[in-house]
Amino acid sequence: MRIGEASRVSGVSARSLRHYEDEGLIVPGRFGNGFRDYCPSTLDRVRTIRSLLESGLAVRLIREVLPHPTDGPGVGAGAADAEFLREVEGYRDRLAARIAALSEQRAALDAYLAKARRTAR
């Protein structure tokens, strides 16, 4: 599909799709006229990239963490140095803290709803 439809389907702007391509995060196919052609697997990758960006991971780290889009399945990034591993661990720890905070908020809402339902009877 062309970029407009890919943008609509993925929920990511055409500008972001071009940026992901410029950063080497995705490699869309090309039609004979040069227009980009986004397949379903590229859109799945776009959604993964968007999710990682929204959760705070930098493009540079995403590029290192995700396999290159032209690599086959199961091919990961090369050997990582200690600084990179610390950055990824820091990201993972921040993500775990956010998950814990959201879980606490969900539990508080569940408790409120349960109490409200009991008193509404």
From TrEMBL:
The keyword S-adenosyl-L-methionine does not apply. Residues 1-68 form the HTH merR-type domain. Keywords: DNA-binding. This is MerR family transcriptional regulator. The lineage of its organism: Bacteria, Bacillati, Actinomycetota, Actinomycetes, Kitasatosporales.
